[in-house]
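Have a close read of the entry that follows and walk me through the local backbone shapes. See right below:
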Amino acid sequence: MNGYCYAKGGNTMFVVKKEIDFSIDHEGLIIGLFDKPEKFIGNLEKLDEQFGGQLRELVKIGDISAKFKKISKVHSLGQVGAKRIWFVGLGKEKEFSFEKLSEALGKVFKALKASKLQETALLLDSFTSDQVDGLEAAHSVSESFALSTYQFYGYKQKSNEPEKKIEKMTVYSEINDEEDIQASLTVGLAFGNGTNSARTLVNIPGNLLTARNMADYAQQLASKYNFEIEILDKEEIEKLGMGAFLAVNQGSTEPPKMIVLKYQGKEQWQDVIGLVGKGITFDTGGYSIKTKAGIVGMKTDMGGAAAVLGAMEIIGEIKPAQNVVAVIPSTDNMISGNAFKPDDVITSMSGKTIEVLNTDAEGRLVLADAVTYAKHHGAEYLVDVATLTGGVITALGLHTTGAMTNHETLYEQVLEASMEASEPIWQLPLFEKDKERVRNSKVADLNNSPGSEGHAIVAGAFIGEFAEGTPWVHLDIAGTSTTSREHDLGPAGATGVMTRTLALFVERFEPIKKS
């Protein structure tokens, strides 16, 4: 099929074309280059002919490098329509992967943004290999573009000078059909934009993103994607007996919101996936107050909620044939004369009583009632996501999300999605002795903080008490939800981690046969 196909992401339009005419003007032309190519082939050979074989010579002498993520910029000097050619080193072809492609593309897109280009073209076929086909490469192009060029502008006074950014990218591919490439670009954009939405939510300060604001945001998603929505206010939460959630909110002047979004992709409401995200918009620690250093950055304690909302945005765009209920308990955790205290005993929606030993272990309390409510809405499979514990950072560092489960088959599906999304997770153990620790209370069914030993594990074990027999996976993103350093696929700040993993998990989900 000849002609054009289009995909839009933000203000950037992707135009797909079958054949390239090197005489067409472009501000930039992006080409992938594998290490030690025996010869230039296809469009690269045609381009080299336009330069009288000089591009190949530049590769031989090292002025154009195929080293992984090495960017080489060549001025065309009028030999072709493109003003500059950006060669992207892809390393050895046998070591190539979707993750490596995304990193390399992210780096060149950042360079293009810094150069203030407003239009560019890309030879898609030069980024494919036996490991990464054209459709996967197209997905990576648009997803990586969205992720790498994301910026949270904050609240500084703005310059009157308009920002220059890439408004159009022409993607050339002789191998694949234009409509297939366009579809992959559209899906990649959905994944990138959904992750960026999650990043923005996490970056917003707590005074500007309250539980009410989060509920309003969910309402906007529901309106855009025709989700069913339910937002419980404090009175309704009280009627349902969500004592664990309410306890965390006791010290706040901001009312809590239990946010529920439903997406139905099947005729019958069955095989329902429950996505539960911790939505603590600011966490002081309560009377178990955080240190003056530890309290800074606690606006990000709703990273789990952001990941779920970002995933729901992607789900709304790609419309998988699945059923999903998203449940987000949102409040801040403040100190006042009304705040809950250590030694308090509270009653959860499930009826289980909880002895509060640590008011800074509040995330597991709000998730307890949210998990119960997700089951109330028919969730047959549960995945909760939360910036839950500092213990997971001690155990796994800042690059790996901690995971726990009561169902290995369900966990395998989440693990596969995380690997495809390049968002690594690592399973922590859940033994009977861990469960016994959270059941160890003289005055209640459970305690919310049995000690610092294995902190991440007992926190997950507590949530598992409310999942009960429902297949469940817990994801602790305390270490991975933010980063202090700029990277190839984004700036410092919120990462939007687990947004793509959750969306891929839903998209690829296979119902598990009941035993």
About this structure: The longest helix spans residues 178-203. Confidence is low (pLDDT under 50) at residues 1-9. The first strand starts at residue 5 and ends at 9.
